[in-house]
Design brief:
heterodimer; A: about 280 residues; mainly alpha; MetI-like fold; 2 domains; globular; B: about 300 residues
C-alpha cells in the first residue's frame, strides 16, 4: 500500500515485486494483537491467576454445570434439527425450480442479518402463551416460551443458515453423471440418495452441524428473552457469565468463560479434522 | 449458481419417467417442498412479520412517537456512531490483512488466517467479558485509567471496542479468498509499467475487489449495528448515554413497552431486510466478482 520497496531477503517470505508487505502485515498484526490477542490472553491470565482449587470449585458448581448442560444440550438438539431441515432446504434450493426460490434463498440468511435481540423478542412474542403460535400450542399443553424448548427454537433460528450455506455449494457441485450411473446400474432413487449422494454430502453436513452447534452454545441475544432464565432449568452458560459479572464475581465469570472457550476450541478442532479427513477422502 | 436442476416442469409422462432416475418422484418432491416452505415460514417469515405487526399495533402515531422519543433517538445516534467507527477500522484491517495474506507467501500464513477467524468462535458475551477484565476496576489498567479520568468501560469506547471485536473477521474473510483467486498478475503488470504501490492498489486492485469489499462491508455493518451480547456486557446500560439500539429494544421490552420495543426493533429489521436485498443483488449481478464462498 505504500511506495516503500519490499524488503527482499526476509527469510520467512518468498521474494516478490509487489510492495507493501511490511506495512500491511505490520498493521494487520498490530491491530490483531491489540483488539483480539491481548484481550483474549487477559482471559487466560485471569484464569491462571485463579489457582486450580478455585477454578475447580467454579467448574464443579452445580449451577455452572447445569448452565453448561442446558447450553450444550439445547445447542445439540437445535443443530440436529437444522441438519435435517437445513439439508432439505439446501436440496430444494439447488435441485428444484419453484416460485419464490430466490426469495427463500435470500431469506435463509435472515438470521445472519437480523440482530439477535430483535429475533429474541419476536420469537418470544410468537411462542408466548397468547402469541400466534403459542396460543395454538396451549390447548395441546405444549409450553415453548420460558422453557428449554424455547431455547431450542431460538437456536434453530440462529443455526439454520450455517447448515444450508455449508451444504448448498456441495450439492451444486455434485456431478449428475454419478447419479445417472447409479440409476443405470439399477439403484432405486432412495438407494442412490442413501448410498451415493449422502456419503458425499456427509462431511459438509457435519461441518454445518458443528458450526451451528458452536454458534448455538455461545448464543445470547436471541435466547435470553425466550428462555425464562430459571436457574438450573433454562439458564444458559453465557447468561450465567453475565449474572456473575453483575455480581462483580469476576473469577466465576472468567472460569465459566474459559470452560466454554476450551469446549468451543475443541469443536473448532473437530471441524478442522473433519475437513482434512473429507478432503483426503473425497479429494 | 450452476443449473444442475432437473426441471420440475417436465411436460410429458415419458420425459418424467426418464428423469425419475435422477430425481425424486413427484410426491416426494412436493413433500420436500411443503416441508421447506413450512419450515421457512414458521422459523423465518413469521418472526419477521410479527416485528412489523407489533410495531404498528396502535398505528402510525404511537410508532413514530416511540422512535422520536429522546432515548430512542440517542440509541439510534449511538448505534450509527459506533458503526461509523468500527466498520471503517475493520475495512482498513481487512484490506491490509488480505493484501499481506493473498499477495505474498510467508511462513505462518495459515495460522494468521485462523487467528483472524477467532472472534467467530467466541461467544459474544465472552467478547465483552475480555474487555471488562482488561479495563475493569480489578485489572492492571483499571486504576491507572481511573486516576487519569479515562472512561472505556460502561462508556462509548468500550462499546466501540466490543463491536470491533465481534465484526473483526467479516471484511478480511471476504477479501482473502477473492484476492487469492485473482493472484498477483495484474499488480505485477501495473508495477512493471511504472505505477507505484499506491497507484497499483487504487487503480488495479481496488477495482478488482470492489464488489467483494462491498459485500464484506455490508455484513460487517449489519453485525456492527445489531450486536447485542458483547455490547450488553460492556455498556452499563445507561439510558440516553450508552444504550445502542439493540440494548434499547431490550430495555423497552422488559418494561412491557411492546410498541416501543418493536418500533425500534422494526428499524433494525428494516436494516436487515435492506442488507439481504443488497446482498442478493450483489450475488446475482456480481457473483463472479465475489468470493466463491457465500454466507459465513
Amino acid at each position: 500500500m505504500t511506495t516503500t520497496p519490499a524488503e527482499t531477503g526476509w527469510r520467512f517470505r518468498q521474494p516478490s515485486v509487489i510492495p507493501g508487505f511490511g506495512l500491511t502485515l505490520g498493521f494487520a498484526l498490530t491491530y490483531l494483537t491489540l483488539i483480539i490477542l491481548i484481550p483474549l490472553s487477559g482471559l487466560v491470565w485471569h484464569t491462571a491467576a485463579l489457582g486450580w482449587s478455585d477454578f475447580w470449585a467454579i467448574a464443579t458448581d452445580r449451577r455452572t454445570i447445569r448452565a453448561l448442560e442446558v447450553s450444550f444440550g439445547t445447542a445439540l438438539i437445535a443443530a440436529l434439527v437444522n441438519v435435517v431441515f437445513g439439508t432439505l432446504v439446501a436440496w430444494a434450493l439447488v435441485r428444484y425450480r419453484f416460485p419464490g426460490r430466490r426469495v427463500i434463498d435470500a431469506m435463509v440468511d435472515l438470521p445472519f442479518a437480523l440482530p439477535t435481540a430483535v429475533a429474541g423478542i419476536a420469537l418470544t412474542s410468537l411462542y408466548a402463551p397468547r402469541g400466534w403460535i403459542g396460543s395454538l400450542l396451549a390447548p395441546l399443553d405444549i409450553k415453548v416460551a420460558y422453557t428449554p424448548l424455547g431455547i431450542v427454537i431460538a437456536l434453530v433460528f440462529i443455526g439454520l443458515p450455517f447448515v444450508v450455506r455449508t451444504v448448498q455449494p456441495i450439492i451444486e457441485e455434485i456431478d449428475k453423471e454419478v447419479e445417472e450411473a447409479a440409476a443405470t446400474l439399477g439403484a432405486s432413487r432412495l438407494q442412490t440418495i442413501s448410498r451415493v449422494l449422502l456419503p458425499g454430502l456427509a462431511p459438509a453436513i457435519l461441518t454445518g452441524f458443528a458450526l451451528a452447534f458452536a454458534r448455538g452454545v455461545g448464543e445470547y441475544g436471541s435466547v435470553i428473552f425466550i428462555a425464562g432464565n430459571l436457574p438450573y432449568v433454562s439458564e444458559i452458560a453465557p447468561l450465567l457469565i453475565v449474572i456473575r459479572l453483575e455480581e462483580y464475581n469476576y473469577p466465576a465469570a472468567t472460569g465459566i468463560a474459559t470452560i466454554m472457550l476450551a469446549l468451543s476450541f475443541l469443536m473448532l478442532l473437530v471441524i478442522n479434522l473433519i475437513q482434512t479427513w473429507s478432503r483426503k477422502r473425497y479429494g | 449458481m450452476v443449473d444442475l436442476s432437473f426441471t420440475a416442469t417436465t411436460g410429458t409422462r415419458e420425459a418424467g419417467h426418464r428423469a425419475s432416475a435422477v430425481t425424486e418422484g413427484r410426491a416426494t418432491r412436493w413433500t420436500v417442498l411443503a416441508l421447506v416452505f413450512a419450515f421457512i415460514a414458521i422459523f423465518l417469515l413469521l418472526p419477521l412479520i410479527l416485528v412489523f405487526v407489533e410495531a404498528f399495533r396502535r398505528g402510525w402515531g404511537p410508532y413514530l412517537d416511540a422512535i422520536v422519543e429522546p432515548d430512542s433517538l440517542a440509541a439510534i445516534r449511538l448505534t450509527l456512531l459506533v458503526a461509523a467507527i468500527a466498520v471503517p477500522l475493520n475495512i482498513v484491517f481487512g484490506v491490509a490483512a488480505a493484501w499481506a495474506i493473498a499477495k505474498f507467501e510467508f511462513k505462518g500464513k495459515a495460522f494468521l488466517t485462523t487467528l483472524i477467524d477467532l472472534p467467530f468462535s467466541v461467544s459474544p458475551v465472552i467478547s465483552g467479558l475480555v474487555y471488562v477484565l482488561l479495563f475493569g476496576s480489578g485489572s492492571l489498567l483499571g486504576p491507572w485509567l481511573k486516576s487519569h479520568g479515562i472512561e472505556i468501560l460502561f462508556a462509548v469506547p468500550g462499546i466501540v471496542l466490543a463491536t470491533i471485536f465481534v465484526t473483526f473477521p467479516f471484511v478480511a474473510r471476504e477479501l482473502i479468498p477473492l484476492m487469492q483467486d485473482q493472484g498477483t498478475g495484474d499488480e505485477e503488470a501495473a508495477l512493471s509499467l511504472g505505477a507505484n504501490g499506491w497507484q497499483t492498489f487504487c487503480h488495479v486492485t481496488l477495482p478488482n475487489i470492489k464488489w467483494g469489499l462491498l459485500y464484506g462491508v455490508l455484513l460487517c455493518n449489519a453485525r456492527a449495528m445489531g450486536e447485542f451480547g458483547a455490547v450488553s456486557v460492556v455498556s452499563g446500560h445507561i439510558r440516553g448515554l450508552t444504550n445502542t439500539m439493540p440494548l434499547h429494544v431490550e430495555i423497552l421490552y422488559n418494561e412491557y413497552n411492546a410498541v416501543g420495543a418493536f418500533a425500534v426493533a422494526s428499524l433494525l429489521a428494516g436494516l436487515a431486510l435492506v442488507t439481504l436485498v443488497l446482498k442478493t443483488i450483489l450475488e446475482i449481478r456480481y457473483g463472479h466478482a465475489i468470493a466463491a464462498s457465500r454466507g459465513h
